[in-house]
Design goal:
This protein is α/β, with parallel strands linked by helices. Among the domains are: about 100-250, 3-Layer(aba) Sandwich (Rossmann fold); about 515-640, 2-Layer Sandwich (GMP Synthetase, Chain A, domain 3). It has 19 helices and 31 strands. The chain starts with 10 loop residues before the first helix and ends with a strand.
Length: about 650
């Protein structure tokens, strides 16, 4: 990871940037004062008495005594300010010509009707609502309606199984589920309601109402005693609703993330601090100019990126944004670029896995579209390898748009480490430095800061506004999981290094570090080396048990379409390439040419499943994969090679 390339901020962008170097100094001099200043961006009922209560770590309270409503901040205040006719959401369905433009005034009407509808169903402040929807406007409307009522929502990604949905419904005690008959995926309706019916049956009578959006028109089983059609329920509601202001620490949502045990881990985010953190970071990191920008975050609503940078952050800032239902390759591989051209998207935020897929498809596809509107590019989900970064900046950003490579987590709620587009001389592959007001560090086993040029564990030293407050119903698990490694320090579970300049490179999960003959090797570093080869589109590396070396490097590689199908020569070429880039110790024992990699719908590679293949084990649970058939493709289509 020695990177010599530097990309300074574009002069015009830097001259008018929302954030300058001065913000870092101001935040460092008075961190709580800095966050109080950012909180003024929002509309509060009662102003807070105290910015931060850290009297009982690790349980933080932000803006104590303050009252606020997230839906009012995301919708009503823009209408009140005279911006009701501004487009909030350009919605694009997967079937072509299936589009809607929704203004802030229209969004307000819909959210108010939905709040009244949920009230009719008995939902009150503090009750939980489960949302299991495709990428349609009703998902945003339902989230905001819940926030308006003070009813914490738990959005479950529409690709999850009935078992996964049931476990989340039961864990948070949701009595109402909002779903759809289905959504469109790769040109065909994909059913959702059957999974809900199965999940509700497993929830032992907990769920009282299931509200069903009619999206695809496919036939669904309908229980008249429990199920209601969204359009019928909404049709009888008033577009007027008086919003209550909630305590700043009132729960906003629970989002489930994977844990080491089978029990789902419900990450709790509360209202005031979360909204401050997401609104500020969205405005700062993307240099948002709400009057002129068209913003598009491609994340699914079922992931934290969809919550923070598709719903709460952008709408709190009064942005105009794109919401797209489908996949990047339907009905053709240029679909995303076509949307950018049509709507004049200026800020584009997506995942490294998507970027590497586009690299694999070739430059000629985006070249057919006018992408000159783009002025800022963002990356999220996992560390972006330098070659994908440079391709993204050049091919999609026209060598003029800066790339903000953002590091954060479900637990952090907001972006924590990133280049700033108007400040940073960016390095491909580096997350660079913490945001103003964030105190991050890289430490050794004893919790001591490592010197520049060294690696260790990525930690956060001070509380931040959008931080998780606990694990739902399990304070001990919260403490044990995130705060037990070093006293008073949040440990993210990621490894990182500081380069010679002190900039941070995230190396991925600590459990994605291999120990080969006593040498600790980062899977990310080897993957970056592989992807730097001109024939490679994407790579995933795992450590497999080896009698001689403890662990051995096993690589799964997708070749670019121009490279052909691969063979022994390419395998040898790639093994030698890694040895040249990193050293002989990192030379893969095996390189397997595969058609696809197993990924979750958020774009994360499931290395656990690849480890099963590398160690010739039975494949584990594939329910969280976007496409569970990928593992069969890998097992039946492997072309592998190895040398001593």
């Amino acid at each position: 990871m020695h990177e010599e390339r530097r990309f300074p901020p574009p002069e015009a962008l830097a001259a008018a940037a929302n954030v300058t170097e001065e913000a870092y100094a101001r935040a460092e001099a008075d961190r709580e004062g800095f966050w109080a200043e950012q909180a003024e961006r929002l509309d509060w009922g009662q102003k807070w008495d105290r910015v931060l209560d850290w009297d009982n770590p690790p349980f933080a309270k932000w803006f104590t005594g303050g009252t606020i409503n997230a839906a009012v901040n995301c919708v009503d205040r823009h209408v009140t300010a005279g911006r009701g006719e501004k487009v909030a959401i350009h919605w694009v369905g997967e079937p072509e010509d299936d589009t809607r433009d929704i203004t802030y005034a229209q969004l307000q009407d819909e959210v108010n009707r939905a709040a009244n509808a949920l009230t009719e169903l008995g939902v009150a402040k503090g009750d939980r609502v489960a949302i299991y929807l495709p990428m349609i406007p009703e998902a945003v409307v339902t989230m905001l309606a819940c926030a308006r009522l003070g009813a914490p929502h738990t959005v479950v990604f529409g690709g999850f199984s009935a078992d996964a949905l049931a476990s989340r419904i039961v864990d948070c005690g949701a009595r109402v589920v909002v779903t759809a008959d289905g959504g469109y995926r790769r040109g065909a309706p994909s059913a959702l309601k059957p999974a809900v019916d199965e999940a509700v049956a497993k929830a032992d009578g907990l769920v009282e109402h299931v509200v069903v959006v009619q999206r695809t028109g496919q036939e669904v089983a309908f229980d008249e005693t429990r199920d209601l059609w969204w359009h019928e329920l909404m049709g009888r509601q008033s577009p007027q609703h008086d919003a209550e202001l909630h305590d700043a620490e009132h729960p906003l949502y629970v989002m489930y993330t994977s844990g080491t045990t089978g029990k789902p881990k419900g990450i709790l985010h509360t209202t005031g601090g979360y909204l401050v953190g997401t609104a500020y970071s969205h405005w700062a990191v993307f240099d948002l100019k709400a009057d002129t920008d068209v913003y598009w975050c491609t994340a699914d609503i079922g992931w934290v990126t969809g919550h923070s940078y598709l719903v709460y952050g952008p709408l709190a800032n009064g942005a105009t944004q794109v919401l797209y239902e489908g996949t990047p390759d339907s009905p053709h591989k240029g679909r995303w670029w076509e949307i950018i051209e049509k709507y004049g998207v200026t800020i584009f935020y997506t995942a490294p896995t998507a970027i590497r897929t586009f690299m694999k498809w070739g430059n000629d596809i985006p070249a057919k579209f006018d992408l000159s509107s783009i002025r800022v590019l963002g990356s999220v989900g996992e560390p972006i390898n330098p070659e994908a970064y440079v391709w993204y900046r050049s091919t999609i950003g026209g060598d003029r748009a800066p790339v903000v490579d953002t590091w954060w987590q479900t637990e952090t709620g907001q972006i924590m480490i990133t280049p700033m587009p108007g400040v940073t001389h960016a390095k491909p592959g580096s997350a660079m430095r913490p945001l103003p007001g964030i105190v991050a560090d890289v430490v050794n086993d004893e919790g001591e800061s490592v010197p520049d040029g060294s690696g260790g564990y990525l930690i956060i030293r001070e509380p931040w506004p959008a931080m998780l407050r606990t694990v739902w119903g399990d304070d001990e698990r919260y403490k044990d999981t995130y705060w037990s490694r070093w006293p008073g320090v949040y440990f993210a579970g990621d490894g990182a290094k500081k380069d010679e300049d002190g900039d941070i490179w995230v190396l991925g999960r600590v459990d994605d570090v291999m120990n080969v003959s006593g040498h600790r090797l980062s899977t990310t570093e080897i993957e970056s080396a592989l992807v730097s080869h001109p024939k490679v589109a994407e790579a995933a590396v795992v450590g497999a048990t080896d009698e001689t070396t403890g662990q051995a490097v096993c690589a799964f590689v997708i070749l670019r379409e121009s490279a052909g199908d691969g063979g022994d020569e390419i395998v040898a070429e790639l093994r030698n390439h890694v040895a040249k880039e990193i050293g002989a110790i990192a030379k893969p024992r095996q390189v397997m040419i595969v058609p696809e990699l197993p990924k979750t719908r958020s774009g994360k590679i499931m290395r656990r499943l690849l480890r099963d293949v590398a160690e010739n084990r039975e494949i584990g649970d594939v329910t969280t994969l976007a496409d569970s058939s990928v593992m069969s493709l890998i097992q039946t289509g492997l072309s592998s090679g190895s040398e001593d």
